[in-house]
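Good morning C.,

I know you're traveling, so I'll keep this short. The sequence:
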Amino acid sequence: MKTVSTKLSKEDFERFQEVCNDNGQCLSEGLRDLIKMNIEAFDDELDLENETELKPAIVEPVMVHGKILDDYGNVIGTF
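The tokens, ready to paste straight into the viewer:
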């Protein structure tokens, strides 16, 4: 195992201690849980980025009054 340490303001330390006590945890358990949640959130975000595929902006161009529109109604060309 490795050790992580940090300095907190008196107010933050006391509040964190209260939260841990309310959850029935010692400070170390509270910190481990917070670090684990942070890592999992980061990994979940990476998974979402990897799963997201870029969809083409134009599925089927629409021609209206000499203008070519994309799916969002933006003019992307003329004819």
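Safe travels,
E.
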